[in-house]
Amino acid sequence: MSTAIVVGGGPNGLAAALSLAAEGVQVTVLEAADEVGGGARSSEAIVPGLLHDHCSAIHPMAVGSQFLNGLGLDRYGLRWRLPEIDCVHPLDGGSAGVLHRSVEQTAAGLGADGSRWRRAFARPAARFDAISEDIMRPLLRFPHHPLTLARFGAPTVLPGSAFARLFSTDEGRALFGGVAAHAFRPLHYPLTSAVGLGIITAGHRHGWAVAEGGSQSITNAMVALLGDLGGKIETGIRVESASQLPPADITMFDLAPSAVAGILGDQLPRRVSRAFTKFRRGPGAFKVDFAVEGGVPWTNPDARRAGTVHLAGTYSELAATEREIHAGRMPERPFVLVGQQYLADPQRSVGNVHPLWTYAHVPHGYTGDATEAIISQIERFAPGFRDRIMGHTVRSTTEMAAYNPNYVGGDIMTGAKDIRQLVFGPRMTLSPYSVGVRGMYICSAATPPGPGAHGMCGANAAQLALRAISPDRRDG
């Protein structure tokens, strides 16, 4: 029987372990923390019974993941829940860009931009399941659906600023810009449209879902299935050198490239070591969870029904803040993402006290305290919010890295998603999961298709490893 060691038990490490175990490989997952899950963990905080997601929270890419959906995780308790409205981007004065799952409903609310939104997203949303077969794999390979991918992919090479000019209203520009800003990149850079287009299209197909019972439910379901497949998990084991790795036919690293380089040292080919040690990191996330009595008193009524709220004002203001953080300067009014998961999953609340999940984009390694900036941004669009806060907890950029070593400097994306790293991953190669050492692979969110609880980085890497030990296997 073939054997495998998976170092790191985040969603991608677990996905790799499941893919290998399903093919009869004897798998052991080694996790440094006391529990697996990486960013897909949840726990009670502030008020007993109040359930907060630690990092990964809203899942437009995971709910439609062909890999996750093929595992039958509903048998292990995974249930997806959808909010009434996916996302709202409020503006000063009370108006907002409103993103519904329906393209038509979204377009109807955007006035003069309705027809433009429809032209941009109706066809890709209808074909998203086919598109995802290609965009959720390494991009530099022959696609399953070349014409469909070409039509979808052409606009993705544009800067977000160029695509935003398609829309004439403040609401339309801000709505697109807020989603594109999930890339943690200045929006005038090429390819920054890609993240916005991908998330919006996925959401129009499958919705911005949350996991019932918290993102921990995704992890719990994967762990339960892995156990049924004979896989093992050992926690509290921090691998820091190659000498700690048990002998195995396959070794997977759900780690940042620099950590892989540190573990393997001279075993890595020089070109790979150089690429991994020079891997570029992105800006940070400063996270604050709140216990809020009665919910957030948003001025815009649609925001009170939305699972996600983006706070940045107009598109031009948002673009300016993203330029600032990329330059290492903390803006007075940062981009703040707000998660109201309890609207789709009421069990997370305790009576009339609700958990509010927020984080701000901040410079990489930011050492200040962004709590007041986050509160002020919410208060800007929801006067009276401050008076409803019953308590809060903070996870700074430093604490982010302590919580998950992949999040160096608060970089929850596991690397800057610039053109080179978004397309190739940690190094310039057609095989982004290979580390240049026989039987060893990297499968973290630093590799294509990137961050999220979709598990595709791990699943893709595992398929490569399986083909190496069974050459008659074909790419599916």
UniProtKB/TrEMBL annotation:
Superkingdom classification of source: Bacteria
Regions crossing the membrane: none
PANTHER family to which the protein is assigned, alphabetical: DEHYDROGENASE-RELATED (PTHR10668:SF105), PHYTOENE DEHYDROGENASE (PTHR10668)
Name the record gives this protein: NAD(P)/FAD-dependent oxidoreductase
